[in-house]
From TrEMBL:
Alphabetized GO MF terms: catalytic activity
Gene3D superfamilies on file: Amidase signature (AS) domain
InterPro entries: Amidase, Amidase_dom, AS_sf
Domain Amidase per the UniProt entry, residue ranges: 95-514
SUPFAM superfamilies: Amidase signature (AS) enzymes
Source species taxonomy: Eukaryota, Fungi, Dikarya, Ascomycota, Pezizomycotina
Organism annotation: Lachnellula suecica
Protein name (database record): Amidase
Length: 532
Protein backbone atom coordinates (compact mmCIF):
# COMPACT_ATOMS: atom_id res chain seq x y z
CA UNK A 1 0.00 0.00 0.00
CA UNK A 2 2.88 2.39 0.76
CA UNK A 3 4.09 2.03 -2.83
CA UNK A 4 0.71 3.34 -4.04
CA UNK A 5 0.84 6.34 -1.72
CA UNK A 6 4.27 7.38 -2.89
CA UNK A 7 3.09 7.42 -6.50
CA UNK A 8 0.25 9.92 -6.02
CA UNK A 9 0.92 13.00 -8.13
CA UNK A 10 0.16 16.59 -7.26
CA UNK A 11 -2.29 16.92 -10.16
CA UNK A 12 -4.30 13.84 -9.21
CA UNK A 13 -7.93 14.76 -10.06
CA UNK A 14 -9.61 12.78 -7.25
CA UNK A 15 -11.32 15.01 -4.67
CA UNK A 16 -12.58 14.22 -1.18
CA UNK A 17 -16.16 14.75 -2.29
CA UNK A 18 -15.75 11.98 -4.89
CA UNK A 19 -15.88 9.31 -2.19
CA UNK A 20 -19.41 10.21 -1.09
CA UNK A 21 -20.52 10.95 -4.66
CA UNK A 22 -19.63 7.39 -5.61
CA UNK A 23 -21.41 5.96 -2.59
CA UNK A 24 -24.51 8.03 -3.34
CA UNK A 25 -25.14 5.63 -6.22
CA UNK A 26 -25.58 2.87 -3.63
CA UNK A 27 -27.65 4.99 -1.28
CA UNK A 28 -25.12 4.68 1.55
CA UNK A 29 -23.24 7.27 3.64
CA UNK A 30 -19.60 7.07 4.74
CA UNK A 31 -18.47 7.87 8.27
CA UNK A 32 -16.99 11.41 8.09
CA UNK A 33 -13.94 10.25 10.10
CA UNK A 34 -13.02 7.85 7.26
CA UNK A 35 -13.35 10.24 4.32
CA UNK A 36 -9.71 11.39 4.30
CA UNK A 37 -8.31 7.86 4.32
CA UNK A 38 -10.59 6.65 1.57
CA UNK A 39 -9.87 9.75 -0.47
CA UNK A 40 -6.16 8.85 -0.29
CA UNK A 41 -6.90 5.25 -1.29
CA UNK A 42 -9.10 6.35 -4.16
CA UNK A 43 -6.42 8.74 -5.42
CA UNK A 44 -3.93 5.87 -5.30
CA UNK A 45 -6.12 3.58 -7.36
CA UNK A 46 -6.56 6.38 -9.89
CA UNK A 47 -2.78 6.42 -10.29
CA UNK A 48 -2.80 2.66 -10.90
CA UNK A 49 -5.52 3.01 -13.51
CA UNK A 50 -3.70 5.83 -15.29
CA UNK A 51 -0.52 3.76 -15.39
CA UNK A 52 -2.26 0.74 -16.92
CA UNK A 53 -4.16 2.97 -19.33
CA UNK A 54 -0.87 4.19 -20.81
CA UNK A 55 0.48 0.70 -21.53
CA UNK A 56 0.11 -0.81 -25.01
CA UNK A 57 -2.58 -3.50 -25.24
CA UNK A 58 -1.59 -7.17 -25.59
CA UNK A 59 -3.44 -8.98 -28.35
CA UNK A 60 -2.46 -11.91 -30.57
CA UNK A 61 -0.61 -10.74 -33.68
CA UNK A 62 -2.12 -12.01 -36.95
CA UNK A 63 0.17 -13.47 -39.60
CA UNK A 64 -0.39 -10.93 -42.37
CA UNK A 65 2.55 -12.29 -44.37
CA UNK A 66 1.18 -15.81 -44.58
CA UNK A 67 -2.42 -14.64 -44.72
CA UNK A 68 -2.58 -11.22 -46.43
CA UNK A 69 -5.95 -9.48 -46.63
CA UNK A 70 -6.97 -8.76 -50.21
CA UNK A 71 -9.57 -6.31 -51.50
CA UNK A 72 -11.31 -5.27 -48.28
CA UNK A 73 -14.40 -3.25 -49.23
CA UNK A 74 -18.05 -2.64 -48.56
CA UNK A 75 -19.96 -4.50 -51.27
CA UNK A 76 -21.66 -2.56 -54.02
CA UNK A 77 -25.36 -2.93 -54.70
CA UNK A 78 -24.52 -5.38 -57.47
CA UNK A 79 -22.39 -7.49 -55.10
CA UNK A 80 -25.04 -7.73 -52.40
CA UNK A 81 -27.23 -10.77 -51.88
CA UNK A 82 -30.60 -11.27 -50.20
CA UNK A 83 -30.87 -7.60 -49.39
CA UNK A 84 -27.85 -6.65 -47.27
CA UNK A 85 -26.34 -10.04 -46.41
CA UNK A 86 -22.71 -8.98 -46.83
CA UNK A 87 -20.97 -6.62 -44.38
CA UNK A 88 -17.54 -6.58 -46.05
CA UNK A 89 -16.07 -8.59 -48.88
CA UNK A 90 -12.41 -9.53 -49.08
CA UNK A 91 -10.23 -12.57 -49.56
CA UNK A 92 -7.79 -14.25 -47.19
CA UNK A 93 -6.38 -17.33 -48.86
CA UNK A 94 -5.96 -20.39 -46.68
CA UNK A 95 -2.81 -22.45 -46.23
CA UNK A 96 -1.36 -24.00 -49.37
CA UNK A 97 -0.68 -27.17 -47.40
CA UNK A 98 -3.43 -29.81 -47.71
CA UNK A 99 -5.84 -29.52 -44.80
CA UNK A 100 -9.26 -30.49 -43.53
CA UNK A 101 -10.87 -27.46 -45.18
CA UNK A 102 -8.86 -27.16 -48.39
CA UNK A 103 -11.09 -25.84 -51.16
CA UNK A 104 -13.80 -24.62 -48.77
CA UNK A 105 -15.05 -21.03 -48.59
CA UNK A 106 -15.88 -19.46 -45.23
CA UNK A 107 -17.71 -16.29 -44.25
CA UNK A 108 -17.78 -14.80 -40.76
CA UNK A 109 -20.51 -13.12 -38.77
CA UNK A 110 -19.66 -9.45 -38.36
CA UNK A 111 -18.79 -9.83 -34.67
CA UNK A 112 -15.82 -12.12 -35.34
CA UNK A 113 -12.56 -10.19 -35.40
CA UNK A 114 -10.55 -10.08 -38.61
CA UNK A 115 -7.55 -7.77 -38.42
CA UNK A 116 -7.86 -4.74 -40.72
CA UNK A 117 -11.52 -5.44 -41.58
CA UNK A 118 -13.91 -2.81 -40.18
CA UNK A 119 -16.67 -4.30 -38.08
CA UNK A 120 -20.16 -2.84 -38.30
CA UNK A 121 -21.87 -4.97 -35.62
CA UNK A 122 -25.16 -4.32 -37.40
CA UNK A 123 -25.49 -0.93 -35.73
CA UNK A 124 -25.09 2.80 -36.08
CA UNK A 125 -25.05 3.37 -32.32
CA UNK A 126 -21.27 3.78 -32.64
CA UNK A 127 -18.91 4.05 -35.57
CA UNK A 128 -17.42 0.93 -37.21
CA UNK A 129 -14.29 -0.24 -35.41
CA UNK A 130 -11.32 -2.10 -36.89
CA UNK A 131 -9.82 -5.07 -35.03
CA UNK A 132 -6.06 -5.49 -34.82
CA UNK A 133 -6.21 -9.24 -34.26
CA UNK A 134 -7.80 -12.34 -35.77
CA UNK A 135 -10.21 -14.49 -33.81
CA UNK A 136 -8.89 -17.98 -33.01
CA UNK A 137 -11.50 -19.55 -35.31
CA UNK A 138 -10.22 -17.41 -38.20
CA UNK A 139 -6.63 -18.52 -37.73
CA UNK A 140 -7.67 -22.15 -37.44
CA UNK A 141 -9.79 -22.30 -40.60
CA UNK A 142 -7.00 -20.60 -42.55
CA UNK A 143 -4.47 -23.09 -41.18
CA UNK A 144 -6.85 -25.87 -42.28
CA UNK A 145 -6.84 -24.58 -45.85
CA UNK A 146 -10.12 -22.67 -46.14
CA UNK A 147 -10.43 -19.31 -47.88
CA UNK A 148 -12.19 -16.58 -45.89
CA UNK A 149 -14.23 -14.51 -48.33
CA UNK A 150 -16.00 -11.90 -46.22
CA UNK A 151 -17.98 -10.87 -43.19
CA UNK A 152 -21.76 -11.10 -43.18
CA UNK A 153 -24.41 -8.88 -41.66
CA UNK A 154 -25.55 -9.48 -38.11
CA UNK A 155 -28.58 -8.01 -36.45
CA UNK A 156 -28.35 -4.78 -34.47
CA UNK A 157 -25.86 -5.51 -31.66
CA UNK A 158 -26.96 -9.16 -32.06
CA UNK A 159 -30.24 -8.45 -30.25
CA UNK A 160 -32.80 -10.03 -32.56
CA UNK A 161 -33.85 -13.34 -34.08
CA UNK A 162 -35.39 -11.36 -36.95
CA UNK A 163 -33.42 -10.05 -39.92
CA UNK A 164 -34.71 -6.50 -40.44
CA UNK A 165 -32.96 -4.76 -37.52
CA UNK A 166 -29.45 -4.19 -38.88
CA UNK A 167 -28.59 -0.54 -39.46
CA UNK A 168 -27.09 -1.65 -42.77
CA UNK A 169 -30.48 -2.88 -43.99
CA UNK A 170 -32.67 -6.00 -43.93
CA UNK A 171 -31.51 -9.46 -44.92
CA UNK A 172 -34.02 -11.46 -46.96
CA UNK A 173 -34.69 -15.17 -46.71
CA UNK A 174 -32.94 -16.80 -49.70
CA UNK A 175 -36.11 -18.78 -50.51
CA UNK A 176 -38.55 -15.85 -50.47
CA UNK A 177 -37.70 -12.12 -50.48
CA UNK A 178 -39.45 -10.12 -47.80
CA UNK A 179 -39.36 -12.98 -45.30
CA UNK A 180 -37.00 -13.27 -42.35
CA UNK A 181 -33.63 -14.98 -42.65
CA UNK A 182 -33.58 -15.28 -38.86
CA UNK A 183 -31.08 -13.66 -36.55
CA UNK A 184 -28.79 -12.66 -35.33
CA UNK A 185 -26.52 -14.57 -37.77
CA UNK A 186 -28.79 -13.40 -40.58
CA UNK A 187 -26.31 -12.66 -43.37
CA UNK A 188 -24.39 -15.90 -42.84
CA UNK A 189 -27.54 -18.01 -43.09
CA UNK A 190 -28.64 -16.17 -46.24
CA UNK A 191 -25.38 -16.60 -48.17
CA UNK A 192 -25.00 -20.24 -47.10
CA UNK A 193 -28.66 -21.06 -47.76
CA UNK A 194 -28.37 -19.31 -51.11
CA UNK A 195 -25.35 -21.39 -52.11
CA UNK A 196 -22.74 -18.61 -52.22
CA UNK A 197 -20.44 -19.91 -49.47
CA UNK A 198 -19.75 -23.37 -48.05
CA UNK A 199 -19.71 -22.47 -44.33
CA UNK A 200 -20.59 -19.49 -42.16
CA UNK A 201 -19.10 -19.16 -38.70
CA UNK A 202 -21.56 -17.41 -36.41
CA UNK A 203 -22.45 -16.96 -32.77
CA UNK A 204 -25.38 -18.27 -30.78
CA UNK A 205 -26.51 -16.70 -27.50
CA UNK A 206 -30.09 -17.94 -27.52
CA UNK A 207 -30.57 -19.45 -30.97
CA UNK A 208 -28.72 -17.00 -33.22
CA UNK A 209 -27.26 -19.80 -35.36
CA UNK A 210 -30.03 -22.37 -35.12
CA UNK A 211 -32.98 -20.03 -35.82
CA UNK A 212 -31.43 -18.63 -39.04
CA UNK A 213 -30.52 -22.19 -40.05
CA UNK A 214 -34.12 -23.29 -39.52
CA UNK A 215 -35.53 -20.39 -41.53
CA UNK A 216 -33.00 -20.64 -44.39
CA UNK A 217 -32.82 -24.41 -44.93
CA UNK A 218 -29.32 -24.79 -43.45
CA UNK A 219 -27.59 -26.96 -40.92
CA UNK A 220 -26.82 -24.87 -37.84
CA UNK A 221 -24.58 -26.31 -35.13
CA UNK A 222 -23.88 -25.00 -31.62
CA UNK A 223 -21.41 -27.28 -29.86
CA UNK A 224 -21.00 -27.82 -26.11
CA UNK A 225 -20.22 -24.53 -24.39
CA UNK A 226 -16.45 -24.09 -24.60
CA UNK A 227 -15.63 -26.66 -27.29
CA UNK A 228 -14.97 -23.82 -29.74
CA UNK A 229 -12.85 -20.93 -28.37
CA UNK A 230 -14.60 -17.57 -28.31
CA UNK A 231 -11.33 -15.64 -28.49
CA UNK A 232 -11.65 -12.55 -30.68
CA UNK A 233 -15.44 -12.66 -30.80
CA UNK A 234 -17.48 -9.95 -29.12
CA UNK A 235 -19.74 -11.37 -26.45
CA UNK A 236 -23.16 -10.37 -25.21
CA UNK A 237 -23.14 -12.82 -22.31
CA UNK A 238 -20.07 -14.99 -21.80
CA UNK A 239 -22.06 -17.70 -19.99
CA UNK A 240 -24.57 -18.24 -22.80
CA UNK A 241 -22.56 -17.32 -25.91
CA UNK A 242 -21.33 -20.05 -28.25
CA UNK A 243 -19.44 -19.95 -31.55
CA UNK A 244 -20.79 -22.30 -34.20
CA UNK A 245 -21.39 -23.13 -37.83
CA UNK A 246 -23.90 -23.00 -40.67
CA UNK A 247 -23.67 -25.09 -43.83
CA UNK A 248 -25.82 -26.86 -46.42
CA UNK A 249 -24.79 -30.37 -45.34
CA UNK A 250 -23.50 -32.30 -42.32
CA UNK A 251 -19.99 -33.02 -43.60
CA UNK A 252 -18.82 -29.40 -43.65
CA UNK A 253 -19.66 -28.56 -40.00
CA UNK A 254 -18.05 -31.81 -38.86
CA UNK A 255 -14.87 -30.91 -40.76
CA UNK A 256 -14.95 -27.39 -39.34
CA UNK A 257 -15.44 -28.61 -35.77
CA UNK A 258 -12.42 -30.88 -36.18
CA UNK A 259 -10.46 -27.84 -37.37
CA UNK A 260 -11.53 -25.18 -34.85
CA UNK A 261 -12.21 -27.06 -31.59
CA UNK A 262 -9.94 -27.09 -28.56
CA UNK A 263 -8.45 -24.77 -25.95
CA UNK A 264 -6.33 -21.97 -27.40
CA UNK A 265 -4.50 -20.89 -24.26
CA UNK A 266 -6.67 -17.77 -23.93
CA UNK A 267 -10.40 -18.45 -23.58
CA UNK A 268 -11.29 -19.96 -20.23
CA UNK A 269 -14.57 -21.30 -21.66
CA UNK A 270 -12.43 -23.88 -23.47
CA UNK A 271 -10.35 -25.12 -20.54
CA UNK A 272 -12.25 -28.42 -20.51
CA UNK A 273 -12.17 -28.93 -24.28
CA UNK A 274 -10.04 -31.55 -26.02
CA UNK A 275 -6.64 -30.51 -27.33
CA UNK A 276 -6.71 -28.79 -30.73
CA UNK A 277 -6.71 -31.37 -33.51
CA UNK A 278 -7.75 -34.19 -31.17
CA UNK A 279 -11.37 -34.55 -32.30
CA UNK A 280 -12.48 -37.00 -35.00
CA UNK A 281 -16.08 -35.96 -35.55
CA UNK A 282 -15.99 -36.38 -39.33
CA UNK A 283 -14.45 -39.84 -39.29
CA UNK A 284 -16.80 -41.15 -36.62
CA UNK A 285 -19.87 -39.62 -38.27
CA UNK A 286 -19.09 -41.22 -41.61
CA UNK A 287 -18.31 -44.66 -40.17
CA UNK A 288 -21.99 -45.67 -40.31
CA UNK A 289 -23.56 -43.16 -42.69
CA UNK A 290 -26.86 -44.92 -43.44
CA UNK A 291 -28.02 -46.70 -40.28
CA UNK A 292 -28.78 -45.88 -36.66
CA UNK A 293 -29.21 -49.39 -35.32
CA UNK A 294 -29.13 -49.37 -31.51
CA UNK A 295 -29.58 -45.60 -31.42
CA UNK A 296 -32.25 -44.25 -29.04
CA UNK A 297 -33.97 -40.99 -29.92
CA UNK A 298 -36.35 -39.16 -27.61
CA UNK A 299 -39.15 -36.95 -28.92
CA UNK A 300 -39.23 -34.18 -26.32
CA UNK A 301 -42.92 -33.75 -25.50
CA UNK A 302 -42.54 -30.22 -24.12
CA UNK A 303 -40.76 -29.12 -27.29
CA UNK A 304 -43.84 -29.92 -29.39
CA UNK A 305 -46.73 -28.99 -27.12
CA UNK A 306 -45.99 -25.30 -26.58
CA UNK A 307 -48.90 -23.19 -27.83
CA UNK A 308 -46.60 -21.28 -30.20
CA UNK A 309 -45.62 -24.36 -32.21
CA UNK A 310 -47.45 -24.19 -35.53
CA UNK A 311 -49.35 -27.33 -36.51
CA UNK A 312 -47.60 -27.50 -39.87
CA UNK A 313 -44.16 -27.32 -38.25
CA UNK A 314 -45.17 -29.93 -35.68
CA UNK A 315 -46.32 -32.36 -38.38
CA UNK A 316 -43.17 -31.95 -40.46
CA UNK A 317 -40.85 -32.61 -37.50
CA UNK A 318 -42.89 -35.60 -36.28
CA UNK A 319 -42.77 -37.06 -39.80
CA UNK A 320 -38.99 -36.54 -39.77
CA UNK A 321 -38.82 -38.40 -36.47
CA UNK A 322 -40.49 -41.40 -38.12
CA UNK A 323 -37.65 -41.32 -40.63
CA UNK A 324 -35.21 -42.13 -37.84
CA UNK A 325 -37.15 -45.32 -37.11
CA UNK A 326 -36.87 -46.41 -40.75
CA UNK A 327 -33.07 -46.38 -40.52
CA UNK A 328 -32.91 -48.45 -37.36
CA UNK A 329 -33.29 -46.07 -34.42
CA UNK A 330 -35.67 -46.53 -31.53
CA UNK A 331 -37.89 -43.46 -31.34
CA UNK A 332 -40.16 -42.73 -28.38
CA UNK A 333 -41.52 -39.82 -26.37
CA UNK A 334 -39.60 -38.40 -23.41
CA UNK A 335 -40.42 -35.62 -20.99
CA UNK A 336 -38.35 -32.96 -19.26
CA UNK A 337 -41.01 -30.92 -17.43
CA UNK A 338 -38.59 -28.12 -16.62
CA UNK A 339 -37.86 -27.56 -20.33
CA UNK A 340 -40.54 -24.86 -20.31
CA UNK A 341 -38.64 -23.03 -17.56
CA UNK A 342 -35.70 -22.47 -19.89
CA UNK A 343 -36.81 -19.22 -21.55
CA UNK A 344 -37.32 -17.48 -18.18
CA UNK A 345 -33.91 -18.61 -16.88
CA UNK A 346 -32.26 -17.47 -20.10
CA UNK A 347 -34.02 -14.12 -19.90
CA UNK A 348 -32.73 -13.40 -16.39
CA UNK A 349 -29.16 -14.42 -17.27
CA UNK A 350 -29.11 -12.51 -20.53
CA UNK A 351 -30.74 -9.33 -19.27
CA UNK A 352 -28.41 -8.98 -16.27
CA UNK A 353 -25.14 -10.16 -17.83
CA UNK A 354 -25.96 -8.72 -21.26
CA UNK A 355 -26.92 -5.37 -19.78
CA UNK A 356 -23.71 -5.22 -17.76
CA UNK A 357 -21.67 -6.06 -20.86
CA UNK A 358 -23.31 -3.24 -22.82
CA UNK A 359 -22.48 -0.84 -19.97
CA UNK A 360 -18.82 -1.92 -20.02
CA UNK A 361 -18.97 -3.90 -16.76
CA UNK A 362 -17.55 -7.19 -18.00
CA UNK A 363 -15.59 -9.10 -15.38
CA UNK A 364 -14.77 -12.55 -14.09
CA UNK A 365 -13.53 -14.28 -17.24
CA UNK A 366 -10.01 -14.96 -18.45
CA UNK A 367 -9.80 -14.33 -22.16
CA UNK A 368 -9.15 -11.79 -24.87
CA UNK A 369 -10.96 -8.49 -24.40
CA UNK A 370 -11.60 -6.47 -27.55
CA UNK A 371 -10.64 -3.12 -26.05
CA UNK A 372 -11.06 -1.18 -29.31
CA UNK A 373 -14.73 -2.13 -29.37
CA UNK A 374 -15.22 -1.08 -25.75
CA UNK A 375 -13.60 2.28 -26.40
CA UNK A 376 -15.81 2.75 -29.45
CA UNK A 377 -19.16 2.15 -27.76
CA UNK A 378 -18.52 3.77 -24.37
CA UNK A 379 -19.60 5.93 -22.67
CA UNK A 380 -23.32 5.79 -23.32
CA UNK A 381 -25.10 9.03 -24.13
CA UNK A 382 -28.74 9.94 -24.60
CA UNK A 383 -28.06 10.17 -28.33
CA UNK A 384 -26.49 6.70 -28.57
CA UNK A 385 -29.16 5.13 -26.37
CA UNK A 386 -32.00 6.65 -28.38
CA UNK A 387 -30.47 5.39 -31.64
CA UNK A 388 -30.47 1.78 -30.38
CA UNK A 389 -32.85 -0.83 -31.71
CA UNK A 390 -35.67 -1.51 -29.23
CA UNK A 391 -34.21 -4.86 -28.11
CA UNK A 392 -30.95 -3.25 -26.97
CA UNK A 393 -32.79 -0.57 -25.00
CA UNK A 394 -34.86 -3.33 -23.44
CA UNK A 395 -31.77 -5.31 -22.35
CA UNK A 396 -30.31 -2.26 -20.59
CA UNK A 397 -33.58 -1.26 -18.93
CA UNK A 398 -34.38 -4.84 -17.86
CA UNK A 399 -30.86 -5.44 -16.58
CA UNK A 400 -30.81 -2.31 -14.44
CA UNK A 401 -34.25 -3.09 -13.05
CA UNK A 402 -33.42 -6.69 -12.15
CA UNK A 403 -30.22 -5.73 -10.35
CA UNK A 404 -32.10 -3.03 -8.45
CA UNK A 405 -35.17 -5.02 -7.44
CA UNK A 406 -33.94 -8.64 -7.31
CA UNK A 407 -30.48 -8.67 -5.68
CA UNK A 408 -28.94 -12.12 -5.91
CA UNK A 409 -31.31 -13.28 -8.63
CA UNK A 410 -28.54 -13.74 -11.19
CA UNK A 411 -26.76 -16.27 -9.01
CA UNK A 412 -29.98 -18.14 -8.38
CA UNK A 413 -30.71 -18.26 -12.12
CA UNK A 414 -27.25 -19.75 -12.72
CA UNK A 415 -27.88 -22.40 -10.05
CA UNK A 416 -31.29 -23.31 -11.46
CA UNK A 417 -29.76 -23.48 -14.92
CA UNK A 418 -27.36 -26.10 -13.62
CA UNK A 419 -30.33 -28.00 -12.17
CA UNK A 420 -31.99 -27.93 -15.59
CA UNK A 421 -28.77 -29.14 -17.18
CA UNK A 422 -28.77 -32.11 -14.83
CA UNK A 423 -32.40 -32.90 -15.77
CA UNK A 424 -31.39 -33.27 -19.41
CA UNK A 425 -28.27 -35.22 -18.51
CA UNK A 426 -30.48 -37.75 -16.74
CA UNK A 427 -32.40 -38.22 -19.99
CA UNK A 428 -29.17 -38.63 -21.93
CA UNK A 429 -28.27 -41.59 -19.76
CA UNK A 430 -31.09 -43.43 -21.56
CA UNK A 431 -31.25 -41.66 -24.94
CA UNK A 432 -28.54 -40.75 -27.41
CA UNK A 433 -30.26 -37.56 -28.55
CA UNK A 434 -33.58 -35.76 -28.15
CA UNK A 435 -35.44 -33.92 -30.92
CA UNK A 436 -37.98 -31.10 -31.25
CA UNK A 437 -38.81 -28.24 -33.65
CA UNK A 438 -35.99 -25.70 -33.81
CA UNK A 439 -38.30 -22.72 -34.30
CA UNK A 440 -42.03 -22.90 -33.57
CA UNK A 441 -42.91 -21.34 -36.93
CA UNK A 442 -41.40 -20.95 -40.38
CA UNK A 443 -39.86 -17.61 -41.31
CA UNK A 444 -42.28 -14.71 -40.83
CA UNK A 445 -42.35 -11.57 -42.93
CA UNK A 446 -40.05 -8.73 -41.91
CA UNK A 447 -41.24 -6.39 -39.20
CA UNK A 448 -40.51 -2.69 -38.84
CA UNK A 449 -37.83 -0.96 -36.80
CA UNK A 450 -38.74 1.10 -33.76
CA UNK A 451 -37.89 4.22 -35.77
CA UNK A 452 -40.90 3.47 -37.98
CA UNK A 453 -43.22 2.21 -35.26
CA UNK A 454 -43.45 1.42 -31.56
CA UNK A 455 -40.85 -0.68 -29.66
CA UNK A 456 -43.42 -3.48 -29.28
CA UNK A 457 -44.06 -3.50 -33.03
CA UNK A 458 -40.32 -3.90 -33.59
CA UNK A 459 -40.01 -6.75 -31.11
CA UNK A 460 -43.13 -8.78 -31.97
CA UNK A 461 -41.62 -10.74 -34.92
CA UNK A 462 -38.99 -12.21 -32.58
CA UNK A 463 -41.17 -12.93 -29.55
CA UNK A 464 -41.28 -16.62 -28.63
CA UNK A 465 -39.04 -17.74 -31.49
CA UNK A 466 -36.39 -19.15 -29.10
CA UNK A 467 -38.70 -21.26 -26.90
CA UNK A 468 -36.78 -24.43 -27.85
CA UNK A 469 -33.31 -23.00 -28.46
CA UNK A 470 -32.36 -20.58 -25.66
CA UNK A 471 -32.63 -23.26 -22.97
CA UNK A 472 -29.62 -25.09 -24.43
CA UNK A 473 -27.54 -21.94 -24.16
CA UNK A 474 -28.37 -21.97 -20.46
CA UNK A 475 -27.38 -25.63 -20.10
CA UNK A 476 -24.52 -25.61 -22.63
CA UNK A 477 -25.63 -28.77 -24.46
CA UNK A 478 -24.66 -29.37 -28.10
CA UNK A 479 -27.64 -28.56 -30.30
CA UNK A 480 -28.05 -28.66 -34.06
CA UNK A 481 -30.81 -27.65 -36.45
CA UNK A 482 -31.18 -29.57 -39.70
CA UNK A 483 -33.72 -28.87 -42.46
CA UNK A 484 -36.36 -31.63 -42.62
CA UNK A 485 -39.10 -30.28 -44.89
CA UNK A 486 -41.30 -27.31 -45.64
CA UNK A 487 -44.47 -25.78 -44.22
CA UNK A 488 -46.76 -22.92 -45.13
CA UNK A 489 -46.26 -19.36 -43.97
CA UNK A 490 -48.65 -18.42 -41.19
CA UNK A 491 -49.82 -15.37 -43.14
CA UNK A 492 -49.49 -16.57 -46.75
CA UNK A 493 -50.34 -20.26 -47.03
CA UNK A 494 -49.18 -20.45 -50.64
CA UNK A 495 -45.61 -19.63 -49.54
CA UNK A 496 -43.64 -22.70 -48.49
CA UNK A 497 -40.58 -22.24 -46.30
CA UNK A 498 -38.00 -24.53 -44.64
CA UNK A 499 -38.65 -26.27 -41.32
CA UNK A 500 -35.81 -27.10 -38.94
CA UNK A 501 -35.57 -30.03 -36.52
CA UNK A 502 -33.35 -29.53 -33.49
CA UNK A 503 -31.20 -32.47 -32.40
CA UNK A 504 -29.68 -32.16 -28.90
CA UNK A 505 -27.14 -34.42 -27.24
CA UNK A 506 -25.40 -34.81 -23.90
CA UNK A 507 -22.55 -32.56 -22.89
CA UNK A 508 -19.47 -33.22 -25.06
CA UNK A 509 -21.49 -35.69 -27.18
CA UNK A 510 -21.25 -33.78 -30.46
CA UNK A 511 -20.47 -37.04 -32.23
CA UNK A 512 -23.92 -38.44 -31.46
CA UNK A 513 -25.68 -35.29 -32.63
CA UNK A 514 -23.73 -35.27 -35.89
CA UNK A 515 -24.25 -38.98 -36.47
CA UNK A 516 -28.03 -38.72 -36.04
CA UNK A 517 -28.26 -35.76 -38.39
CA UNK A 518 -25.96 -37.29 -41.00
CA UNK A 519 -27.88 -40.55 -41.15
CA UNK A 520 -31.18 -38.68 -41.51
CA UNK A 521 -29.70 -36.44 -44.21
CA UNK A 522 -28.44 -39.43 -46.19
CA UNK A 523 -31.88 -41.05 -46.16
CA UNK A 524 -34.03 -38.01 -47.02
CA UNK A 525 -34.32 -35.02 -49.34
CA UNK A 526 -35.90 -32.21 -47.35
CA UNK A 527 -36.13 -29.94 -50.41
CA UNK A 528 -39.02 -31.86 -51.96
CA UNK A 529 -41.91 -29.42 -52.06
CA UNK A 530 -39.92 -26.18 -52.01
CA UNK A 531 -41.36 -23.68 -54.49
CA UNK A 532 -39.33 -20.57 -55.32
Amino acid sequence: MSVLFTSISQDNPVKKDDVQILLDKLGVVIDPKEVSDFHMLLAAVHECAAQIQELPDYQPTPDRVRYPREGIHRPSKQEQFSGQAWAHKFLIRGSHEPGLLSGKTICLKDVIAVADVPQLYGTDVFAPWTPTTDATVVTRVLDAGADVVGTTTCENLCHSTSSFTSAQGPVDNPFHAGFSAGGSTSGGAAVVGGGLVDVAIGTDQGGSIRIPASFCGCVGFKATHGLVPYTGISSGNAIDDHAGLLSRNLVDPALCLDAISGYDGIDDRSLGAPAPGATTFTKCMQAEPDRLDGFKIGILVEGFKHHMVDQGVREVVLAAAEGFARIGATVEEVSVPDHSRGPALWTIQQRIAGGQTLLGHQHGRRGLYLTELEQGRLPWTTESFQSCFAATKNVIINGLYLMDHFPGLYGKAINLGRQLRDSYEAVFEQYDVIIMPTAPIVAPRHGTTSKDGSPLDALKPSMGITINTAVFNVTGHPAMSIPVGVASSLTEPQVLLPVGMQIVGGLWKEGKVLRAGYAWENAHDWRLGIVN
